[in-house]
Protein 1
Amino acid sequence: MSDPELEAIRQQRLAQLQAQYKGNNANDKQAMEERMQQMEEMKHVILTQVLDQSARARLNTLRLGKPEKGKMVEEMLLNMAQRGQLPGKLGEKELIDLLENVNQQTQKKTTVKFDRRRAAMDFDDDMDL
């Protein structure tokens, strides 16, 4: 075989391997997306069983306003449902109580310290101009 023929064969084989790799990669991505979609559907089914319509609407509103907190509350509800800690469907009132408990636990205490002496000195310095 001459060099151009060998090079052509190499190019064909390389193209075949790349096409095969892309095909496997696409199948993996598709399978992953399907698994994620199934997990989301299961999550929605469990939340529908655990929450009544008004509580579900409040949770969706929370997810729109504060996505991190909404996701955290959803995960907490799913864990509680899997452990059997929820007696039945939660109403809006029970969800609000749960959200208040979460807020108390996750609330960060922020304090503002204002040094009046420094502010007074700065003010006096400005007056001397």
Protein 2
Amino acid sequence: MAGKHLKKKDNLWILFNGKEYCVGLTKEAQEDLGEITFANLPKIGKAYQAGDALVEVEAEKAVTEFASPLSGTVSSVNEKISENIAVLNDEDEMTAWLLSFKDVDAAEFDAL
């Protein structure tokens, strides 16, 4: 699709859709973790710097903390995760999205 750009960093994928930067777990992260049983997502409106602790994921193999790949403000979270954690175990890694950022410097994304 025009206007979409996908990058990967530290077992996270980042998709710019022309408006926001969506962040999710890569297929490799899903496989490394095994069955995911819990995810602690950030609050909407919270600002992060690249490298800050962003999301904690609990799975059968480990509890893993993922660092923010970008600096920005959380604009949305995947509400389906709280209703059904199994969406993070889906075969399609693009359904394993966690959150979206706004107020991101495009140069920071380009540098990934």
Protein 3
Amino acid sequence: MFLNSTRYGLIACRYLVRCYYQGGGWLSAPEIAEHYGMNVRALTPSLRQLSRAGILRSRRGGSRPGFILADDPERVSLLDVMLALEGGIKVECCRRVIPELRCDCPAETCSVCTVFNVELSSLRERLAAVSLKDYGEERGSGKADRQG
């Protein structure tokens, strides 16, 4: 349902939150990728997207290039991160996605979209209620934690 780049961005945010509460500091994309065993090339676009959205700050050069949270993790929700990475969470009318489709539902009351959009509305509410601080809290240690 979500893009792999969104998954990578969420995983990176968890690590950046933990580092924020352990004294902060800039983390490079390779450091984050290595921590979780990710491909740095797959991770980097997500980090850039989060930087453009203002969730992360980035810097090049200097003694410690990399990424850092732009705000207190308590003030950023998972919905903020998801919207920055996905651009929106909604289901388009079937006829917009498949133009040649012969469907008798009016676009504004499409029965397929209505079902999914009700669920997505609920998901938006749940994501808005979870801060990055909550998301980044320790859930244990070991291999399962390293997988995100």
